[in-house]
Write a structure and sequence with these properties.
The chain is an alpha/beta fold and about 325 residues long. The radius of gyration is 21 Å and the shape is globular. A hairpin with a 7-residue loop joins strand 8 and strand 9. Helix 5 runs parallel beside helix 7 and helix 5 runs antiparallel to helix 8.
């Protein structure tokens, strides 16, 4: 199956984010974006130096919402948003100076026009949506628009699994997503288990000035270590997803953080012994969390930073372990 980094909440990245997108290619088979058909081509205009070449190489998958947001995703999206509306999650939103358009296809019009229309009508009655001005998009309150895009990113896991893809929602806007979750957290939220899972996998190598060819060459040369790392990561995320107890989940996250730190420290000691060099530092964060309503709590976000690694390690790892790919990547690209 293909490991796809699903970029959200925007439908495409800006040129200033090119370095971060390149870093995703070290950890995933491809990058995927959800781009309406009438917007096709804008992703290349936004970053002509990277989007076009990646698409030509088959490393950028452009998902068309009319096909991707299927009946199941539309139904789940509507159910979650209606729950938020019914329980007042949007009641205290600040008045929006402007409304931002969201394509009708991303709301589910291509799969179930009646259900999508119902959802938009519910939003309009609360002043959170306006009548379409162009026939292809709906103006929404910015917080509602972002909420829908975050939810779609998580629901894409199910859609992806149907198509032989392992979808990993990835965002470079962790703070914005956290702020949104805090805004929507209300004591009066219903006690629904696992409303939605939210996990972020930000990588922090600065690859802005690294040519794309060098990044892809590194990935090819270290494909065995990459497969080992991804297999380990998938197992860890699957284990985390099964846990409902927040304390147990946090304990496992801390355990993984220590496991990576211990492995890094051992290789650091070996490097110092063999090369006698001072070591710099870098970091890679893997965060897992839930919008979870376990035990009657409101939307609770467990976003515990894990996997922080310090130190540049040997150019020749002795073993291809679960984390050796991370270490070698840090040594190659850290500045």
């Amino acid at each position: 199956m293909t490991d796809s980094a699903y970029y959200y909440p925007a439908p495409y990245w800006a040129m200033r984010e090119g370095g971060w997108i390149k870093s995703l290619l070290l950890f995933f088979d491809e990058v995927a974006i959800l781009l309406p058909d009438y917007m096709y081509g804008r992703h290349v205009q936004a970053d002509p130096t990277l989007a076009g070449p990646l698409e030509d190489l088959g490393l950028l998958k452009v998902l068309e919402p009319n096909n991707w947001v299927d009946a199941e995703a539309t139904n789940q999206l509507a159910e979650i948003v209606v729950d938020l509306l019914t329980n007042g999650a949007f009641d205290d939103l600040p008045k929006a100076v402007y409304f931002a358009e969201l394509s009708q296809s991303r709301i589910g019009y291509g799969a179930d026009v009646n259900l999508a229309s119902f959802l938009v009508a519910e939003l309009r009655t609360r002043g959170l949506a306006r009548t379409s001005e162009d026939g292809v998009s709906i103006p929404l309150h910015p917080a509602v628009r972002t909420t829908i895009l975050v939810i779609l990113a998580q629901l894409s896991r199910v859609t992806g699994a149907k198509r032989g893809m392992i979808v990993h929602p990835t965002t470079n806007y962790a703070e914005a997503v956290r702020d949104l979750v805090e805004t929507l957290s209300r004591d009066r939220m219903p006690s629904r288990e696992n409303v939605i899972k939210l996990d972020l996998e930000p990588v922090t190598f600065d690859l802005e000035t690294i040519p794309l060819d060098d990044v892809l060459q590194f990935r090819t040369e270290h494909k065995d270590a990459h497969r080992t790392y991804m297999r380990n990561l998938r197992g860890f995320m699957a284990e985390l997803a099964e846990l409902e107890d927040t304390k147990v989940r946090e304990a496992i996250l801390l355990e993984r953080r220590q496991e990576i730190a211990d492995a890094a420290h051992e290789i650091q000691r070996s490097t110092r012994r063999e090369l006698g060099k001072d070591l710099g530092s870098w970091s890679l964060g893997i965060a897992g969390g839930f919008w979870s309503l376990a035990s009657g709590d409101p939307i609770g976000l467990a976003l515990t930073a894990t996997g922080l690694i310090s130190g540049i390690v040997s150019r020749s790892p002795k073993q291809v372990g679960a984390y050796s790919y991370l270490f070698e990547a840090s040594n190659t690209f850290a500045r």
